[in-house]
Structures are given as structure tokens and as C-alpha cells.
Design brief:
This protein has helices at about 15-25, 40-55, 85-95, 95-110, 120-135; strands at about 1-5, 35-40, 60-65, 75-80. By secondary structure, it is α/β, with parallel strands linked by helices. The chain is globular.
């Protein structure tokens, strides 16, 4: 099951986000996943970032994944997206809010699927290529 929860006052097409996640999982042939995407505010994101990453700052997106659930089959994931930070980043990058939201969603789903960009330049390059590919396919 994939769910998208908007816990902000911002109007966001959550159905479109849900379809994007489904399409990425399908294209990756990743099997069944239970994923929750939560759209949250800056204060909540700062609290989560402080608690789980020991960083006292707002970030645009955090992904929490577990490849195998308690039953040995279910893959679990939670994506937290800070709407305020995505808006701020979109302005700085001269992109629309929707384009930047798509970018962070693709990035976070790829993290759940095991893609990494912080451990090596090669892995970062592979992840960047996948991000570009899916952002183009989800246009």
C-alpha cells in the first residue's frame, strides 16, 4: 500500500504524487512496498532531522526504509517532505514548486530502493542518472 498524507495547509495533488511513486516502483521492478509519503512543515522536519540525524536544521526530504518487514516479505518505507523547504529550494533553483517536489520525491524513492550518493562518486553518478531518467518519464 502506498499512501500520501498532506499534513500542511498547502494544496498539493497527492494523487499525482501517489502515481509517481507507483510508476517508479514499477519501472524499477521492485515488487511490493508499503510506503508512506508525509508532507510536513518546517518545524516538524527540524524535529525529525534533529532526532534521527542529530542535525538541528530543516531539510527538504528524509527517507526511512526497511528492506524487509516483520513478515520477511513486506518492504517498508517512509518519506518525509518539508513543503516549506521545497518551496524555498524551488525559488533558489528557479524551478516551479511542482518540479522541485517531483525531484525530491524521485530522490527519496530511489534512496528507499537502495540508491546512494554519499559514499562514492560512482554511486552518486548512477543515482543522478536514475533521477534524471525518472524525472523525464514522470513529466
Amino acid at each position: 500500500m502506498i499512501e500520501v498524507l498532506n499534513l500542511t495547509r498547502q494544496r498539493i495533488n497527492t494523487e499525482k504524487l501517489l502515481l509517481m511513486v507507483r510508476k517508479i516502483l514499477y519501472l524499477e521492478k521492485s515488487g511490493q512496498w508499503d510506503i508512506s509519503v508525509c508532507l510536513i512543515g518546517a518545524r516538524r522536519m527540524r524535529e525529525i532531522n534533529r532526532k534521527f540525524r542529530k542535525k538541528d536544521a530543516v531539510t527538504d526530504v528524509l527517507s526511512f526504509g526497511e528492506l524487509q518487514g516483520p513478515n520477511g516479505k513486506t518492504k517498508l518505507g517512509q518519506i518525509m517532505i518539508c513543503v516549506h523547504q521545497v518551496k524555498k529550494n524551488a525559488r533558489a533553483l528557479q524551478k516551479s514548486f511542482e518540479e522541485e517536489l517531483k525531484s525530491v520525491l524521485v530522490h527519496s524513492v530511489l534512496h528507499l530502493l537502495g540508491y546512494e550518493h554519499e559514499k562514492s562518486k560512482q554511486k552518486a553518478h548512477i543515482m543522478k542518472q536514475k533521477e534524471k531518467e525518472y524525472e523525464d518519464k514522470l513529466a
